[in-house]
Design a protein that fits this description.
Length: 50
């Protein structure tokens, strides 16, 4: 299954999915963005993180 990374927007098979700490919306981050700590921003509530 492919999912889009919230940080870079690329489709990937290697991802982590977790609830947003602000609103519990499921966020998807690719392995690469997690490894280099690219920041993310929730599109629903605007909270950001590393």
């Amino acid at each position: 299954m492919l999912k889009n990374c919230i940080t870079c927007g690329k489709q990937t098979k290697e991802f982590s999915e977790f609830p947003c700490p602000g609103c519990a919306t499921l966020l998807v981050r690719c392995k690469h963005c997690r490894l280099i700590s690219n920041p993310y921003k929730c599109k629903k509530c605007g909270i950001d993180g590393p």
